[in-house]
Structure of Translation regulator:
Amino acid sequence: MSITIGQLLAVPELKLRLVHDGGCNGTESIVWVHATDVVNAAEFAEPGEVLLTCSTNFPLEDMSNANDLSLLRRDRHKLGLSSSFKDAESAKEAYDELWMHYVSSLSRAGVMAIGFGVKMKHPVIPQACIDAVKQHNMLLFEVPEEVNFSQIAKTVIRSQAEESENVQRVMYSAQRELFEASNDRNPIEAVVNRAALLSSGWAAFIDTEMRIISISNQSMRKRAMLLAVRMRKQKERDGDAAKTLFGVASGAIRYCVCLIGQKGQTFGMLVVSTSRSGSYGDIFRSLGVAAADALMWSLPQHIERFRSESRLRAIAMGELQAGRAQSAASIMGPLWKWTPSYPARLYCVEPFGVSNDMDFATMSIESACPDSVFGEYEDRLWILTSKDGCDAVERWIEGSGALDSGYAAVRGPRSFPGAFNKAVQNLLLHRAGSRDSVLDITPHELVDPDLAQMYAEELFAPLKDVPAAENHSLMATLRELMSASFNIGTAASRLKVHRHTVENRVVKLERLLGLDFADESARVRLWIAYSFIRDAEQA
């Protein structure tokens, strides 16, 4: 931290004497030290600096020198004030007004303090100067005759050099930590948490869909979204020129928002905030940019890895849905640390942008739900987790922005096909009464899969005793009949046989299955049973 005005006044070798504190508490950092005696010093001043002056261009307060009156006229003229006064009393008023104008202009320029060197011309600080300083509430200190202004400047410069070196040292260490975090399997969460720790504040990553993917402090979600919206508006206004947004909110809370992207592709934005004050601002800005750079470097590689693994995850979920748990397990091994154990729970989540290769919310499952496996299959996201992992998965779903979800118990490897259907049914029940319709669901999703499978196996059991060739012709006839809405002529045409042949086969099917195909209820049951048998055969 650069030297503060309080620390400067406390340096014993300088022997500086505080005349008026100007309401400062001594913790304000000095930006620069400027020594000048010109009356228009405010034109060259900068906010946060300390002005050192002996005021040799100002007349003495008692007007004891012969040229004091002419000097007073010259100074007032230079500042745009009237240079005419009649007598000693009006000259005294003009002198007071000169100092008031001088201090007022320094205050407006943002000068932090005035250091007045005595006994170079003025034996003491003029009372008019002290009155003006008090009027404008500025800090004023006295510099003794034996102390050169260069000693004060060197003290400040030496402190600033040490501060610069310290900033470089701190930032080198911070950059190294941030880039190490970016090598994590989940770089977003790792960098967010590391940035929050380094800034002694909080951090968040928001994707292009304005979803909070990771945040170090959940109580700051609303604040993070407000800053993200502000950054998006700046982007809409300034286009590609908008990269970063810095500011101070509520008088003390610093924030930094950085867009993260590469080669015209935007990944999202990083928000970092802290309540630390003082000269920490420069370090904080650099820290926010360094964290964004770390993600900008790592995310393309992470996205490519996730894109490649997503295809394997989809295959694994397809194998589970088909009841081939052993095949799925061989695919899962290289992808997940957790090996499914039973009983387990299968979650179905939609809609979730599963076609997006850059879906950071889906990428975050890995760290948020360590005791789980997941993948996209048939336009839905599926998460299989242990009994102890359910709470973590449900917290992730709640914070992910998913609109609907459902789940089903998985008793063992053989129960996966039924569990997939039951999870969808549970999702549809959760959707009931919401803005999303359930009219687009499939017939399979209307019935209990385990019960339907049992019914199908029992219904078609008599066909197993029929010779293979006849079994094949009967099942082919049944398929074409259902496809043709039980129209005998259409089915015969598609099978390329006489309609009497189809009629004879229908009689035999009705006898073997114990159903009357003229009964609408029997047709519905037949269609459900056949569809489940067909799916099992395809699997």
